[in-house]
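Final report, results section. Input specification for complex C-07:
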Amino acid sequence: MDKQLYMLKINNLKASIEGNKILTGINLDVKPGEVHAIMGPNGSGKSTLSSVIAGREEYEVEDGTIDFDGESIMDLSPEERAHKGIFLSFQYPIEIPGVSVSNFLKTSLNESRKAQGLEPMPAGDLLKMMREKMELLEIKKGFLSRSLNQGFSGGEKKRNEIFQMAMLEPKLAILDETDSGLDIDALRIVANGVNKLKSKDNATVLITHYQRLLDYIVPDFVHVLYNGRIVKSGTKDLAHELEEKGYDWIIKEAEQL
Amino acid sequence: MNLKDKLIQAFQETESTLSFQKERKDSMRRLEEFGFPTVKDEEWKYTNLLPIIKNEYALSASESLISKNLLDEYILTETETNVIAFVNGQFSQELSNIDTEKITLCPLSLAEKTHSTVVQNYWGKALPEHPDSLVALNTALSKEGVFVHVPKNTVAERPIQIVYFTTNISSDLFLQTRNLVVVEENAQVQITERHQNIDQKEVFTNTVTEIFAQDNSLIDFYKIQNDKRNCSLIDNTWVKQGKNCTCTVDTFSFGGKFIRNNLSFLLEGQYSESNMRGITLIGVNQLVDHHTLVDHAVANCQSNEMYKGIFDDNAKGVFNGKVMVRPDSQKTNAFQSNNNLLLTDSASIDTKPQLEIYADDVACSHGCTVGQLDDDALFYLRSRGIPFKEAQAMLMYAFANDVLSNVKIPELKQKLNRIIAEKLGVQIDIEV
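Structure output:
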């Protein structure tokens, strides 16, 4: 198959941090329009995988390749990857006192536009866009002028992540444990937002520990990560099986290989 | 001739023409006896004055002019203010724009004639009995500066802007400037001050400001230290507070090669508040030293201190925050924080809280941190497409924001934002 059909193609990816091998050979192909879920027990390397795709420099990539839209992104900085359309929703969004949500978004959006050779978005258009996307995520007025994530509840932080995603309109969204710390209403709002943002041209990778999120955002593929590699892939039925039987049977299966 | 001898000689030559002869003579004697401080003095342990004082300086310069356009670069222009400007140590009528009915704003030399009683009553009275040699030197030799008098029940509606320029000087220059600010009962004033060299020659300024905050007064004093890299500044500010008054001195240090701030508050009346805050943002071959002192001489007062420092390249910072709570000063609240970011391995900060508490029913706290920019936060911003340099800048803004957000003059806040953006070499527009 022509590799151009893939948006994200990860081949035999091995990565470590401070000498500890975390990823031991990941293979993952994501096409436009697809939703992939990556599940796995704690410590299996899920968050590392998302960080490495987004370009976190503390991780050392020892082997393998990551291609995005048919080109290697291995040498790109996190901001260059963002400019190409990769978005990572953080499990623990960082609090930045003194930088308002609106200023942050303005800077973020306009830096991406600049990288694409576009003029900054006119202030009026930007505000209009913010309002639309806020509505989508049921975000209240006054939110824009608050300091980024400072004093936000767990739910507000996650909603803010998806709000940023809605504003930046990435090709590939990696949502790292977006469901953690969310009550059922917040989960519904966040999932609803993600679903509405889906299109045939973008793709989503959900990283999650629990099957719960997958009731709201239905994946096309489910992968189980264990010891730094994908040990099993399947459809959404695999997620249900995990919910019922836990991870032990997969771990056993994997260790017998 | 070394600098000390030169100063002594200059004093002998002009002594007979100056006011406050006894005070000046006593002060000169202190300089003669103790000389300039060295790193052997505890108060100057981390800041070496020697390279500054071993230079050859002229002690005065001839009158000169700068253009109004140039002035505008260094002042707030959109806010209605009163501007008092000096060039080469001399009052400049052309640059000053003073329109006051209710308050007095004029050169100190003039006030000695027009407001002689006030000057007689206050000049030198905020200073300690045994000042250090630099304050003593200023007392002995200073001839000019700003006089601000805000009478009882008066609110100075326009902020006052003080600018000391130097330009067209024929040799390196050592200046003594002297400000006297008297704010009477129920009076209010906002003041900004900066020293600005335009010349290629070096300028070393040793300045003393005395501020008297009488009962129920409100004073905001902003020091903008963004001089050329060939300048050194020793800024001695002494504040004396009466009852139920609030005095704030904020210091923004970006420029110059050598800055030593000695800022002291004496709380003599109950229920008063002293605030001192600072942002220091410096780089290659720059030094900024903040020495603060709050003397809680009476009960029921509050002091708040917040200094933020960002040090790049081989910049050097010093912070020494002394808080004195006298035995009868119960119910004192004294808070101090000093947070620092070191952006490189060769930048340094020596920071020391110094709390002397002799009362037993008080709330005093201090905290100091030295760290780097948070990698997680940097990655977060970069993953949103914000380039490394801008991401760093954003985090530095965030770090300094607690101080900046307290600036009460909106145009000044904008100007400081711009100076910071320029210093950081970014074009992001951050307002909160």
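The interface with chain A takes residues 374-377, 379-388, 390-391, 394-395, 397-402, 404-405, 428-432 of chain B (CB under 8 Å). The first strand of chain B starts at residue 82 and ends at 87. This concludes the modelling results for the funded period.
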